[in-house]
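# nightly structure sweep
# worker-07 picked up a monomer target from the shared queue
# config: single-sequence mode, recycle default, output format = structure tokens
# input follows
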Amino acid sequence: MYRLTAPCLFGLEKTLSFEIKRAGGTNIAMRDGRAFFDGGENVIAKMNITSSVAERVQIVLGEFKASDFDAIFEGAKSAPIEEFAGSEDAFPIAKGHSLNSKITSIPAIQRTVKKALAERMKKKYGTELPESKHTLPVHFLLQKDVMLLTLDTTGSSLHKRGYRSRSGEAPIRETLAAGMADLAHVRSSDLICDPFCGSGTILIEAAMKQLNIAPGMNRAFIASEWDCFHKDIWEREFREAGERVKNDKITLFGCDKDGEAVKLAEENAWKAGVNKYIRFERRDIREFRYPETSVKIITNPPYAQRMLTEEEADGIYRVMGERMLPLGKNSLYVITSRESFPELFGKKADKDRKLYNGMLKCRLYSYFGERPEKSR
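# output follows
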């Protein structure tokens, strides 16, 4: 069993906690934008393959007070790196952040941590390390003079599913799109629409959720090659993920006024293996109309900080209200940084939740539409 941690975008902690439980993780503790939990190698593999909102899965090497470089060195020196890295493995200090701490120089922290871990490895193996076999990236987070030292099992961030080699302007992160689909309670019976589909990310993630396609099924993970781990465990988790894929009949459709974005969305859906379920077409929001059956709209319309002026964005939100209200039996989930969206749209949201699109604080406004009357 290992003590593990997985960061996520702020606002998606509840979804992440559920995914950890589903993967078999225990002793879960949540902090802002991060979960800590216990699990064996099977949990590490399953979280990497199946989590839709985690950014990566890391093994906790240590957490200690670090208000000066001596404390950083001694704390890092106590991290059991030799339990994972062999005498020929590389352990680069790949990534780090310093937040609200006395020490702010990232390069200086990296050198100190590297020196401490190298000294521990030399004591274990007795020789200088060639670092030529496998790579075991070490990450650190120095926050309020407390250092969290971790070993990354993922490699490229988990939001990189493999289907989006190209993207349109201001694309939504895959993990955020998946989180929105989860918060919208997407089910296989739902008809899903995105009238600002861009490169198709929200619809692709929603389709993957409807079909139970594990986000990491078609990519590799750095820890699966480590000598300290077992390839058969990873192969089993990949195989079982494939066996859980559903063959339900689902329908999704997306629109965008940019013809190139529509072509890109079609290409990305094809790469993700869900193109036969999603219909894309070029259409402006001014031409939006509801289908005959009720629909669940999940969308990321353009907003001022990323693509438009405030006046242009406000105009789009007003048009959305004109075309979408009244909702009837349809529901709407829209993310935007514009806190006046409900007023511009013309209706107060039934619920709103704070989320982050990258570093930009946004809100997910939820409109549930008409609820069926309860039988007496």
